[in-house]
Each structure stands twice: as C-alpha cells, then as structure tokens.
Amino acid sequence: MTRALKKRLKATALWLTTFVLMIVMCVPGLWVVLSAFRPNREILAKPPVWVPQDLTLRNFTKIFGIGEETVAIPVLSYFWNSLVIATTSTVIALIIGMAGGYAFARFRFRFKNAWFLGLMLFRTVPGIALSLPVFMLWSRLGIIDTQMGLIIVYVSLNVPFTVWLIDGFFRQIPMSLSEAAQVDGCTRWQAFWKIEFPLAKSGIAAAGVFAFLTSWNEFALASQLTRSTDSKTLPVGLMDFTSQFTIDWAGMCAMAVIIIVPALILTFLVQKHLIAGLTFGGVKG
Amino acid sequence: MAGITLDRVVKRYGKLEVVHGIDLEIGHNEFVVLVGPSGCGKSTTLRMIAGLEDISDGDIRIGERVVNDLPPRKRNVSMVFQNYALYPHMNVRDNLGFGLKIAGQPAKVIEERVAEAAGILGLSELMDRIPAELSGGQRQRVAMGRAIVRHPDAFLFDEPLSNLDAKLRVQMRTEIKKLHGKVATTVVYVTHDQVEAMTLADRIVVMKDGYIEQVGTPMEVFNHPVNTFVASFIGSPPMNLIPGRIEGGEVRFSGGGTVPVPGRLKEHVRGGQEVIFGVRPDDLSPIGHGIHEARETCEIDLTVELAELLGTETLIYTSLAGQEIQGKMFDPRDLKVGETLTFRLSLDKAHLFDAATGRSVRPR
Ligand SMILES: Nc1ncnc2c1ncn2[C@@H]1O[C@H](COP(=O)(O)OP(=O)(O)OP(=O)(O)O)[C@@H](O)[C@H]1O
Ligand SMILES: [Mg+2]
C-alpha cells in the first residue's frame, strides 16, 4: 500500500519538476510569440497586462508594408539573405563534414588524433573573439557586407561540429558492411552511397539541422560583418527596431516569430529522420 | 574450375610481419579450414584472398588468374563475415539480391537466383523481414544465402558460427557441410574451434603465429601431428605431453618413471635424446575400459585425482612423472578420488617429439 503510494508520489514529483522546467524554458519563447500579436502599448503597460486583450496582426503587416503601411524594414531582403547564407553554408559544411567524418572514421593517417583535437579546439574559441581579425581580413579581401563573407565564416564555424558528429555515426557502422558490399561487387564509392550513406543519414540530417540553426540564428559575427540589405540577416535585422531612445518591442517580436517559424518547420521536417534510430540488426556484436 | 593458390604470401603492417610467406594449394571444390589460436593470422590470410587486405609479398591465384592487385569485386568470391554484415536497411530479399543487382543482372534472373538460394537455405518465409527482425541462426542463413546467389568461384567464411549458441552452432555446422554438398564450390573456412575444423574440413591448415604448421586431412592431422603445437591444438581434451629422455629403449621421464619407446619409432630416436612423449587421453585407459585393440601396450599405475563423467566415458585427471595428465575410462564405473588403477597405454598411438625442436621424431 505505502509502496504504491510512494511510487505514485515519486511519479508526481517527477512530473511536476518536468512541468516546471518546461514552463521555465518555454515561457520566454511563448511570451515573444504572444507579444508579436499585441500592440506596443499593451506590451509596455504598467502594471503588466497578463491576459491579452487586443490580439492583432498589425505588427506583421507593418513589417511587410502590407496595406497603407510604408515598408519600415526590408524584411524580405533579410529573409532572403538568411536563407541563402544558412542553406549554402550548411550544404558546404555537410559536404566537408561527410568527407572529413568518413576519413576520420575509416582511414588511418598521420597525426589523425592531433588533427581531430585541433578541429575541436577550434570550436573552443568564442566566435566573437574572432570578429575583429575576421573583420580586418574580410575588409582587405573586400568581402565585408557580402553573403559570401558570412558563408565562409559559418562554414568554418560549423565544420568542426559536422565532422565530429558525422564521424561518430560512421564509426558506429561496422567496416564489414562496406567490405561485404565490396566483395558483393561494389566499388568503394558505390559501397559508400548504397550502404554507409543510407545508414549514416540520420546523423547527417542531425548535423545539417544544427549547422543550419547555428547559421540561421547567429548574431554576433553577422552584426560585425554586414551593413546593408546586401547581406544583413534576420537576427541582425532585429536591431533595426531599436533606435536611440525607443525600442519597438511589438515589431521586434513579430520579426522574432518570422525567424523562429522556418527553424521550427525545418526541425519538424527532419525530426522523423532524427528519431528513426537505426537498428543495426544486420550485424551482431 | 577454380582452386586457390597462395605462393609465399607475406603480410606486413608497417614493420610488423604477421603472415610469414605461407604456401598453400587449395583444390577445386575443396573444403579447406584454416584453424589456429587467436591472432595467428587466419583472418588476415582470408582477407588477403578476398582482396580486403593488400598482400605485402608473394602471389595469390584464384583459378589461373593472379589476383594480387584486383579489388574484391573483381575476384568473384563471396564472403561470410563473423558478424554476418547483413545490410541493416534492406530486407532479406534485397540483401540476397544486392550483389546481382550491382552486377546489373536483369530483374528476372535476380528473382530466380534469390528464390533458388532462399529455397536451399529455407528462407522463403522471411523474404520481407529486415535483419533486425531475424534470429541469429536466420541471419547466419541469410549471410550464407547472400554468398551463394552469386555463384562465386569460392566461398570465404570467417568464423561464421562463433556468434551462435552451442546448440545452434552444431546445427549450422551440419548445414554448412550439407550446403557444400549441394553447392559444390571451393571453400576456405576460418575458425579457432578445432572441432569445427575436424568436422567440416576436407583438409585442415593449422596455423600459428603467421606460419602454417601442418596441412592435412583431419585424420592425418589428428593421427600424425608434426609437432607438439599441432598435437596439443587438435583433439579435445588435448594430448598429454610429458618430457623425458631416451635411455636404452625406454623413455625416462624427467619426473621419474619410464615407458618403452614405441616399436615403430625406435629407429627414429637415439640414446640420450631429449624428447617429449605424447599420448592422447583416449589411448590411456584403465585395463578393461579402453577402446583400442592395441598391439603394443604398456601398463602404468595411476591415482585418480578427479573424475568427470561425460556419459559414455569418464575423463580421469591424474599425474604421471609429476605432470598432470588425463586418461579416459570407457564404459565407466563409479570412481573414488585417490583410487589407484592400472592403466593401459597404447604405444601404437603414442608419439615422440624432439624436445629441442618440438617436431615429431618421425616425419611423414
Ligand atoms: N590493422 C592491423 N595493424 C596491425 N596489426 C594487425 C592489424 N590487423 C591484424 N593485426 C595483427 O595481425 C595478427 C593476425 O591477426 P588476425 O586477425 O589475422 O588473427 P586471427 O587468426 O584471425 O585471430 P582471431 O581468431 O582472434 O580472429 C594479430 O597479431 C593482429 O594483432
Ligand atoms: Mg579472425
């Protein structure tokens, strides 16, 4: 009797803790989303208005300049820049990650561990610490305020991570699978695409999502390296809502939602692959 | 028509040489088993035949072709791996047909061959399952099926049964033997299990430390081991080996006691020679409880230290000349520890090895 009760209590406590943690994590995000649909005066009201009285889409129409509004902020350009930069840098980081991860997982070469460690150490440098050197280098090269400038930065930011993650996934795939395929008539290349790649797909997808989100959300470096609609990304665009004395919270929140939604959509699309955990039933041991 | 020939094949990893110039001729449709303790280079040898490892020196021929520099896919062999290496994301049908598909065979041919292999191995019911949904024995069969669909010149097996439990292992062993009967092909089979080697092989290749110690039929290897290593490796329980010295037609054991030098070996030893006397437990039984109608025997009194009833026989642990040895009592009766029995030792079946070289004094 008491034992069952204890168990029940424990479960409840666990559930409550989880719930509280979830709330703590989600509330700021939810507040942002909520604020995106509220007028500025309600957001700033004192005492705060907890329950929204006045939900509106005006914040969004204002950003996009729909209706009688004038276009305040070139959101579409920012969106386009973000999309191009994040997608391109992710694709490149994935290609390098696959090649590098495969090499680390499968081949022996000199200084392999040193290379790997070096790659990881590179990640320990905070991006912002690099901003000044990168800025100077980029201005010499004339790629300040270009999409390419940011793409290069994001690729180098993401490659260590994609290599590391994809290496881990290839490592889990027994060598004998590729060998079996080769004995079965494949070239090494065919064995890779027909056997090892499909098995590492979930890892590659995961690496892709992370790389994309990193690039999509990055602010510090982008704010240094971009100036205009040529290359400004959405997170940098958020700053357009601040002026010297006022901050347009409502507009900012609406913009934040615009940033969040594609990221959410992508994550949902890919999550099927992320959790479709591999069952290595093909091999034993 | 394809045998396999290894000609002074060497494998080095950097400076480390792990296979030392081995020679081996494997006949067409012969079932050859490479056996030896862990790390002796069996897998390496097999993988060199498959093309999964480069060879450092020497030649490998499959049929008439020298295959030294051919990639695995051009050697027309198939391999069954220890961990089966089934493609986890494909069902049984696709696993079986993969090689044929890669080779660009028409769908109809693939279907026929896959069905044929599935029939031989009893896989027809399982065609739509993926490997994760199969039992160990079924996976094993799929792996073999994948090997046979391509009608290769040779099958290479690397410890295919070592992941199965004891009962299944025995069952699959018989199946492999039967399979070889149905699908006559050259087979190279690697195992460290000497029972598997004895039961499956047309010829056994005993390896140790990257050298071939002996090649022969199971009978030859069992009855005429060329050295103490083969003598103790083949046969279970292993042959008793007792060091001694030849003195006046007798072997005087270092720890005391003598046995006569077996007649057939007399002319192969000289007085004063340090030797190792070998006798299998089967050839050392209490009087009236032996199996052999030996012509030449001697009798020794030994004290039972431990007796293990195995069913039709009892394994007796005892010591001779200060050395632990084993004997067998067939048609056993109850034994007491400490009981002293008179054993009959079949000298016909006994062996003598030179103590210095470990080689049999009577080379064959
Ligand atoms: N890649 C490698 N680099 C260096 N040495 C290796 C390599 N692969 C194998 N060896 C060595 O080669 C020797 C033979 O290995 P192999 O795998 O052929 O042994 P095996 O007879 O198959 O043993 P087991 O019964 O344990 O499978 C071993 O001593 C092993 O340490
Ligand atoms: Mg091995």
TrEMBL record, chain A:
Keyword line: Cell membrane, Membrane, Sugar transport, Transmembrane, Transmembrane helix, Transport
Location in or out of the cell: Cell membrane
InterPro entries: BP-dep_ABC_trans_perm (IPR050901), MetI-like (IPR000515), MetI-like_sf (IPR035906)
Membrane topology: Multi-pass membrane protein
Domain ABC transmembrane type-1: start-end pairs: 79-270
UniProt cross-references to Gene3D superfamilies, sorted A to Z: MetI-like
PROSITE patterns: ABC_TM1 (PS50928)
Entry GO terms, CC: plasma membrane
Keyword Aminoacyl-tRNA synthetase assigned: no
Record flagged with keyword Cell membrane: yes
Transmembrane segment boundaries: 12-34, 78-104, 116-138, 150-170, 191-213, 249-270
GO biological process assignments: transmembrane transport
Record family assignment: Belongs to the binding-protein-dependent transport system permease family. MalFG subfamily.
UniProt function note: Part of the ABC transporter complex MalEFGK involved in maltose/maltodextrin import. Probably responsible for the translocation of the substrate across the membrane.
Annotated protein name in UniProt: Maltose/maltodextrin transport system permease protein MalG
Automatic annotation (TrEMBL), chain B:
UniProt-listed Gene3D superfamilies: 2.40.50.100, Nucleic acid-binding proteins, P-loop containing nucleotide triphosphate hydrolases
Stored PANTHER family: MALTODEXTRIN IMPORT ATP-BINDING PROTEIN MSMX, OSMOPROTECTIVE COMPOUNDS UPTAKE ATP-BINDING PROTEIN GGTA
Any one GO BP annotation for this protein: carbohydrate transport
Gene Ontology CC terms: ATP-binding cassette (ABC) transporter complex, substrate-binding subunit-containing
SMART domains on file: AAA
Record-annotated ABC transporter domain positions: 4-234
UniProt keyword annotations, A-Z: ATP-binding, Nucleotide-binding, Transport
Family per record: Belongs to the ABC transporter superfamily.
Keyword Oxidoreductase: no
The keyword Transferase belongs to this UniProt entry's keyword annotation: no
UniProt name for this protein: sn-glycerol-3-phosphate ABC transporter ATP-binding protein UgpC
Superkingdom of origin: Bacteria
Pfam families xref list: ABC_tran, OB_MalK
GO molecular function: ABC-type transporter activity; ATP binding; ATP hydrolysis activity
Coiled coil: none
